[in-house]
Design brief:
single chain, 193 residues, alpha/beta, Rossmann fold, six-stranded mixed beta sheet, 5 helices
Length: 193
């Protein structure tokens, strides 16, 4: 793909950079960035059926306010590739905890241990909400737009009781936070079988 002659790229304002980051939780993740790396990071997660491109009009004002603004095409969208795209393909990689893992991998690959805020719109809202719930040390502030937060994901596949009905809810998240860690690699959480 030659980005220099791409209409999509040609419509981006000067100051917004487009590139693909390799090996983000097994993905080649397309990312738009504005502002200087090293400044506090604001992560923008798009909705359905949108792309990182949806954030283009707000990226420069945020960058002008002193933020490093990052908007990825999430798993299954746009120019991000690397999942099983077959008609009968495996959908397990689209579980919410794996989408959180994608986000953590991106943040780690960008060199951040935390972000100033994660903002989700529509489909991006549950991802942003779960990022902040599972790793509040990484995602210090959260904003959800156009979609209410439905609560934490079910951990039945992890061998946990449903945390919405369990009195030991805190213990579930302590265990999960130990699994979802930035330590050592950009592939932070193994969702298991």
């Amino acid at each position: 793909m030659n980005d220099t002659h791409d209409t999509y790229i040609d419509t981006l304002a000067t100051g917004i950079r487009s590139h693909v980051m390799e090996n983000i939780n097994g993905l080649s993740m397309h990312v738009l960035e504005a502002g200087e790396a090293g400044h506090p990071c604001v992560l923008l997660l798009h909705g359905f059926p949108e792309l990182a491109y949806s954030w283009r009009k707000i990226m420069l004002p945020l960058a002008d306010a002193g933020y490093h603004v990052v908007a990825p095409d999430q798993r299954g969208y746009g120019r991000t590739t690397g999942w099983d795209a077959g008609y009968d393909g495996d959908l397990d990689s689209f579980r919410i905890l794996n989408l959180v893992r994608d986000t953590l991998g991106l943040i780690a690959a960008l060199g951040y241990r935390s972000v100033a805020a994660v903002i989700g719109h529509d489909f991006g809202s549950p991802v942003a909400g779960n990022c902040a719930l599972i790793r509040p040390d990484v995602f210090r502030k959260v904003a959800l737009m156009s979609a209410p937060y439905a609560g934490p994901p079910s951990f039945a596949s992890e061998g946990f009781k449903d945390p919405r009905s369990s009195p030991s809810r805190g213990a579930i998240f302590v265990n999960l936070r130990m699994k979802v860690s930035l330590a050592g690699s950009a592939t932070c959480f193994d969702p298991g079988p």
